[in-house]
């Protein structure tokens, strides 16, 4: 019965934009396992990873060197997109998503209207990308559902600073 109540609680905090069961799958390691089994790494390529529960497809276009959000301090990042044989890929689309200066993804807000702290940028002719990421701070896993599971296991519920890019 405790398991059923836990799953019911997890389901009750899901919305069309915020899927707590994806976060639960991440917490249990199932997402990474499925990804590792189904998307074997290409020699010299970047390993695939899960997009998690906070990715959305409605990211605004962001010019190189700018940010989709204007809050907090920024982390500067740059890189190049190329094939595994190092051939450049100009015009590659990179989607990014991060937390805001409070440590929350925009999908965690009930009054979300636009995808702030999400961005879509395109590499230049030199395949370079230069996004600015807003306020990358550690943030807690939701205190209900997956967060409750972590606390019951006596594990911390804080995610470290990190970047999301596909």
Automatic annotation (TrEMBL):
GO biological process: catechol-containing compound metabolic process
Ranges where the Catechol dioxygenase N-terminal domain occurs: 3-39
Cofactor: Fe(3+)
InterPro entries found in the cross-reference section: Catechol_dOase_N, Intradiol_dOase_C, Intradiol_dOase_core, Intradiol_RC_Dioxygenase
GO MF, one example: catechol 1,2-dioxygenase activity
Highest taxon above the source species: Eukaryota
Pfam families: Dioxygenase_C (PF00775), Dioxygenase_N (PF04444)
Keywords, alphabetical: Dioxygenase, Iron, Metal-binding, Oxidoreductase
Domain Intradiol ring-cleavage dioxygenases residue range list: 65-165
Family that this chain belongs to: Belongs to the intradiol ring-cleavage dioxygenase family.
Name of the molecule in the record: Intradiol ring-cleavage dioxygenase
